[in-house]
């Protein structure tokens, strides 16, 4: 369910890492900074789950960032599975994260699978783009 309210800090993180929001995606969403591509990917999933378009736009690389982002209030993001990671660590300048995100919508349940590209500019990680796949 998309909302504009912050996630309660004592609850489990929507990214389904198993950690509390306050020690998982909360600090990344608050600061806009992640130590690596996977943490940024998790925070972006959480932003979709919470309806936080601001975080999504702030963490989108300026060369590919849309002017605005309209989130679907009827979409409920349920789970994130990280399937693969290439580079994207604290000493890398780029990385790729493959994930599958599960959702529920009025039309039913489904999933989105994507290989996302990330870059680190001036010590800040950004989402660049991704290739959506079905398998």
UniProtKB/TrEMBL annotation:
Source organism superkingdom: Bacteria
Q: Where are the transmembrane segments?
A: none
Entries under Pfam families matching the protein: YchJ_M-like (PF17775)
Q: What is this protein called?
A: UPF0225 protein WDU99_01945
Domain YchJ-like middle NTF2-like: start-end pairs: 37-130
Query: InterPro entries attached here?
Result: NTF2-like_dom_sf (IPR032710), YchJ-like (IPR023006), YchJ-like_M (IPR048469)
The family assignment reads: Belongs to the UPF0225 family.
Gene3D superfamilies, sorted: 3.10.450.50
Originating organism: Microbacterium bandirmense
């Amino acid at each position: 369910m998309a909302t504009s309210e912050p996630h309660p800090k004592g609850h489990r993180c929507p990214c389904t890492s198993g950690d509390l929001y306050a020690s998982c995606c909360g600090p990344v969403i608050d600061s806009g900074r992640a130590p690596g591509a996977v943490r940024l990917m998790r925070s972006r999933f959480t932003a979709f789950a919470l309806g936080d378009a601001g975080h999504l736009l702030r963490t989108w690389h300026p060369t590919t960032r849309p002017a605005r982002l309209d989130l679907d209030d009827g979409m409920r993001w349920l789970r994130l599975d990280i399937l693969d990671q290439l580079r994207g660590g604290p000493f890398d300048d780029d990385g790729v994260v493959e994930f599958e995100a599960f959702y529920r919508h009025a039309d039913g349940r489904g999933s989105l699978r994507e290989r996302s590209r990330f870059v680190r500019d001036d010590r800040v990680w950004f989402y660049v783009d991704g290739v959506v796949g079905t398998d």
